[in-house]
Sequence to fold (412 residues):
Amino acid sequence: MKLIGPFKQLIPMTGLSIKGPLSDDDILVMEDVGILIEGTRIKSIGKFNELKIAYCKVEVHELKGDHIGLPGIIDAHTHICFGGSRAADYAMRNAGKTYLEIAKAGGGIWDTVTQTRKSSQDQLIKTTMKRAHRHLKNGTTTIEVKSGYGLSVVEELKMLRAIQKANDQTPADLISTCLAAHMFPKDFEGSPEDYLELISSTLFPILKEEHLTNRIDAFVEESAFSEQQIAPYLKKAKAMGFDITVHADQFSTNGSKVAVDVGAISADHLEASTQTEINLLAQSDIISTALPGASLGLGCNFTPARKILDAGGALAIASDHNPGSAPMGDLLTQAAILGSFEKLSNAEVLAGITFRAAAALNLQDRGQLKEGLLADVLLFHSSDYREILYHQGSFKPCVVYKNGEKVYDKHQ
Ligand SMILES: [Zn+2]
Fold:
């Protein structure tokens, strides 16, 4: 067992509703407390001095100076397993070239598919771990990672096995998702329906057998798959016991309706959602995930986060870290920026990257600091928790604990 403290302020993110607006007055701020950790989990949270006396034999990590404690950040949507770079795309887009012109010049998602197929599994493990480690240092202790640059049974398996191996070798938790329905592969001989049928009948059973993932994602968009093509695919996945998530309403609306119809856990993007889709999502149990990194990368509008919350929806915020539209990957920065553009309270932004993000991944063991949950804890050198978002992401944690172990310490 170990005891960490005293925290000037501990923000456990408990007692807050999963849906709807949150005010900073709702945030529980615990002062001069300590966290008692047994193994990977939190055993108790209480006044530091009292815990120190009651557990006089445990290892004490005594904090010097003022520290804020926060649950580990959860990034519920990334594509950090990929080969190559799309710097040329990015430059072309900012120089005013259209999506079609970029695709014609050999750019776009297909470029990353080509580069990822060329990469060995070992190369993918290495680069995924490198990116995961950078995020862990910045406080992201749980990272969802999608496949979707393989687009064939063999290549999707290579990606998902690479994510699984990377997960074994990094202290961060990588939660894998199969995104074989990212786009229709150019080199597939047959119709989009044939492709989806092949994936669901051949790949899905292997995913189960090798425990590679229990999550299936699909991109519903004019440039990817239509509502009619994707609904049977996702229903089949759901019937096999997979959790469903959808890339929805990024440029056109349709995806959120599919997500609600199939009973998805989350609908992500939603930049194009109108009040109709917002109400539909808010009336369901779906987590709506905003991806400000994609808006920043593409130079387009943000997800209507304020409207989603005001309609009573549950809002998570994720980085969408990917080589094309969201190369930055810094979730704390992006969440802070979304907060200032969309007028979100500290409570709403922090909820979006902690317990509401945990719900987007269907994880009940993290996202808050309380007895029995994983000891994923961030320490910030400050006496006021509002400093964290005030610095718009440039203020990073000085210490990161994952599963009760110190995995990063700025001072060492
Ligand atoms: Zn994405």
About this structure: The chain has 16 helices and 17 strands. The radius of gyration is 21 Å. The pocket of zinc ion is lined by residues 77, 79, 247, 320 (CB under 6 Å). The mean pLDDT is 97.
